[in-house]
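We close this part of the discussion by returning to an individual protein. Part of our work consisted of pairing the sequence of a single chain with a tokenised description of its backbone. The amino acid sequence and the backbone structure tokens for this protein are reproduced below.
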Amino acid sequence: MTDAPTTAARRPGEPALAALGLGAPALSHADASPHTFPEGGSWRTEVPSVEGPEALAVVLKESSRLDVPIHRISQGSGVWMLTDAEITEMVESTGERDIELCLFTGPRGTWDIGGSVRTDSRGGGLRARGHDAVAGCVEDAVRATELGVKCLLVADEGVLWTLHRAREAGIIPADTTLKVSALIGPVNPAAYAVYEQLGADSVNVPSDLTLDHLTEIRRVSAAPMDMYIEAPDDLGGYVRMYEVAELIRRGAPIYLKFGLSKAPAIYPYGTHLRDVTLDTARERVRRGRLALDLLARHGADGDMAPLGSRLPGSLRRFATPS
């Protein structure tokens, strides 16, 4: 990855505050990320929670209407919640627009019969419980990639390492990218680096990490970062619109995820949730337009990665068993 260009983005409210003697201290070059995506650019965009072909059609139509560029579209219910025909339709629709499609793999602890995730400690959370759960994730991965899906979303370290080994062994295509879910996202630089070594090509971090936390991560890892600009309520409901330029400066290379707070949970999706799923899909794209408008007003919208780019560049990995 190459050195990121230095930008002189206008900070929110700064001219007015400076005129009143309330200007902020100058930004430090030392806390800026030195990394970019391999094709250039500091940021890409992602629309999450696109639960099937109908929601995808809404997102694509709305992104054209509002001129919202999209690099990646992700789904949260899981490969197992889609028929082969639905997956194929989504692969073809995103392929026509050169957008990466990312589908969630397999069983997860919150849907399992184990009671620990419902205790106050939340137990193992989203992780795959036992061999059979890992096997289900692998089954989903093989099925999805055979149908043309090139990005898989994982919520378990063991599944991540297993799919990375499968990728290296040729069981799934070598150019498959592996994305770590926000629900198990690392909260310190050491953990972030471990996910990179386990095979992650992009890593969701919790949206409550501070700007300094992002700088700390960037001092040890160049793996692309995914971050909700607006987080769903079950991830905290944080809205960080006015920080977008600084999130890019500190966290590049970064995917700006256009989530939605104050929206009902829709996983696992079914037609009983159709109306709210389509409405929230449409609104996520609009939220993306708002974020892009803010970047433009602050002069920080000029370093977007080329549309159609999806690979993470050269990353560090643990050695796989021979």
User: Anything to note?
Assistant: The two ends are 28 Å apart (CA to CA).
